Amino acid sequence: MSRAVTVATCALNQWALDFDGNLQRILRSIDIAKSKGARYRLGPELEICGYGCSDHYYESDTLLHSFQVLAKLLESPAAQDIICDVGMPVLHRNVRYNCRVIFLNKKILLIRPKISLANAGNYRELRWFTPWNKARQVEEYFLPKIIQEVTEQETVPFGDAVLATKDTCLGAEICEELWAPNSPHIEMGLDGVEIFTNSSGSHHVLRKAHTRVDLVNSATAKNGGIYLLANQKGCDGDRLYYDGCAMISLNGETVAQGSQFSLDDVEVLVATLDLEDVRSYRAEISSRNLAASKVNPYPRVKVNFSLSCSDDAAVPTCTPIQWRHHSPEEEISLGPACWLWDYLRRSKQAGFLLPLSGGIDSSATACIVYSMCHQVCLAVRNGNAEVLADARRVVNDETYVPEDPRELCKRVFTTCYMASENSSQDTCNRAKQLAEQIGSYHINLNIDVAVKAVVGIFSMVTGRTPRFAAYGGSSRENLALQNVQARIRMVLAYLFAQLTLWTRGIPGGLLVLGSANVDESLRGYLTKYDCSSADINPIGGISKTDLKNFIQYCIENFQLTALRSIMSAPPTAELEPLVDGQVAQTDEVDMGMTYAELSIYGKLRKIAKAGPYSMFCKLVNMWKEISTPREVASKVKHFFRMYSMNRHKMTTLTPSYHAENYSPDDNRFDLRPFLYNTTWSWQFRCIDKQVNAL
């Protein structure tokens, strides 16, 4: 009896609209799968065009080029004698669907449209696609001429069906369908489907990987079966990092695990599994069998092909493994680093420039770039020819071999300490020491001449000279003078990014890195168009608390001892005058709240969907041991006033790596007004009424 099936799933670093590159990566994954004996290959969601095409899905060009790539795949010798499952958009009867196209030996077996579309957080699939609402129904799809010429088929099945091979039955899910409460795998499993596949476009969020793994394993724990999950990986053109984690599960246990963070563009997992393990597992679950006897059957597409060999009695099968999860600190070290590498090589720039202040945020950003250099050197050491070729292009040296992260850092990373009369020697020293330890090309400069020139123009025009509060000025004067310093730093950062390499006789320009964390953005504790304004920001979705833990991780794992003094120093903007040569200004005093409190406000506002009144009601219980109701009310009101006054800053926020579900990114994740009535009169009256009652 044929029972051992060999199947493959993969994680591909696809790029939106990069049809040439996407085609080559798909073909490589098929080659690898076949070389390891696989008879079925599963790829990520919308892998032909890349998941992040956004409004390009409206364009007929995207559909046309996707079919052109599909024709190349159908014709390829690599794609023969293996069932290939690829993702692309398909227009059926003038309705656009997110589809799987499953083919074998130049024949399309089934086009399976997505049933449950992702439409929360960063996902907007309902904007571009329509869900297939005809459960267990199949229609005829008329193939375009370009495909007919290859397959010699006029029509193929389109709809909610499963594949029946000579030895088993396969059913497809697409990404969100695994997360839905009524996942298709439930009914498919009851109808005898033994192998479930899921093609995903799932992005990284801190502490999320275990949820995905648990969902896959639980899908087969209650119902039995084999589950394959494919996912995109890398930066495909925007704020998200797709974090791979391709996996294969059998009867509730993981048997193959892919990497979550890697610079490999193509990763293929192959497993040989015993179908009899599924059948015997299901045999003793009486509740499952009773439900199966009443299930409404799926249409079956018969496939004259086997996933097993005729003589497989001696074929070894895979056994369960323990999933290895990364700590949040490791995730911060690896995820944004891989995202930065993708952005750097695909933007064809020569490196990064970072204004390094000697504080936690910019130091954490510097450590992520250093981690990126570690990953590049490791990949080259492991024989990754693509990473080596990309590194040579970035540094403009055909013979270069990156071996030492510090040496690579010197080539691709410029740090710049921009002192003013309000800067302390301590932060200058801390920035210099960290730059020396990571190996960056470090610049020290002073901005006072530029600040005096700008303020001088104002004084010449108005006849008035603003003063800091420490010298008798008003709060308006004090804030304006701080903002001038911050904005001049942004202008200088871009000037040095464009011309620093020119002064060193090196071609190319640098990408400017921002370093505002997610909590500062939420509170609006930043100057609009200051150094938070950059090309990209690898820590913009990470909390201050997590960044502190990450700094400790870097001390222990990268031996960056300069970080110890940075960790122990209170966060400060250093924009107000020093007192006796020492910093008098600190972030938490300026903000009127702690970073720990900010994280709590952020999670309640975004994840718990709490307005001012609901937030007060939750916090009055959460903080009952440390604050009175009146104190809680005051804190909540202060947060919402500051948040709403500064919300306009989110409209120009630098594109940031998405890592937290309470990110205030205005672009697509956190859609809210940016002009508020900041008195919140009705809401605050409700809070006051409750305070009085308490």
UniProtKB/TrEMBL annotation:
<keyword id="KW-0067">ATP-binding</keyword>
<protein>
    <recommendedName>
        <fullName>Glutamine-dependent NAD(+) synthetase</fullName>
        <ecNumber>6.3.5.1</ecNumber>
    </recommendedName>
</protein>
<dbReference type="InterPro" id="IPR014729">
    <property type="entry name" value="Rossmann-like_a/b/a_fold"/>
</dbReference>
<dbReference type="GO" id="GO:0005829">
    <property type="term" value="C:cytosol"/>
</dbReference>
<dbReference type="GO" id="GO:0034354">
    <property type="term" value="P:'de novo' NAD+ biosynthetic process from L-tryptophan"/>
</dbReference>
<dbReference type="InterPro" id="IPR036526">
    <property type="entry name" value="C-N_Hydrolase_sf"/>
</dbReference>
<feature type="domain" description="CN hydrolase">
    <location>
        <begin position="5"/>
        <end position="275"/>
    </location>
</feature>
<comment type="similarity">
    <text>In the C-terminal section; belongs to the NAD synthetase family.</text>
</comment>
<dbReference type="Pfam" id="PF00795">
    <property type="entry name" value="CN_hydrolase"/>
</dbReference>
<comment type="subunit">
    <text>Homohexamer.</text>
</comment>
<keyword id="KW-0547">Nucleotide-binding</keyword>
<dbReference type="GO" id="GO:0003952">
    <property type="term" value="F:NAD+ synthase (glutamine-hydrolyzing) activity"/>
</dbReference>
<dbReference type="InterPro" id="IPR003694">
    <property type="entry name" value="NAD_synthase"/>
</dbReference>
<comment type="pathway">
    <text>Cofactor biosynthesis; NAD(+) biosynthesis; NAD(+) from deamido-NAD(+) (L-Gln route): step 1/1.</text>
</comment>
<dbReference type="InterPro" id="IPR003010">
    <property type="entry name" value="C-N_Hydrolase"/>
</dbReference>
<dbReference type="InterPro" id="IPR014445">
    <property type="entry name" value="Gln-dep_NAD_synthase"/>
</dbReference>
<dbReference type="Pfam" id="PF02540">
    <property type="entry name" value="NAD_synthase"/>
</dbReference>
<dbReference type="GO" id="GO:0005524">
    <property type="term" value="F:ATP binding"/>
</dbReference>
<keyword id="KW-0520">NAD</keyword>
<dbReference type="InterPro" id="IPR022310">
    <property type="entry name" value="NAD/GMP_synthase"/>
</dbReference>
<dbReference type="GO" id="GO:0004359">
    <property type="term" value="F:glutaminase activity"/>
</dbReference>
<keyword id="KW-0436">Ligase</keyword>
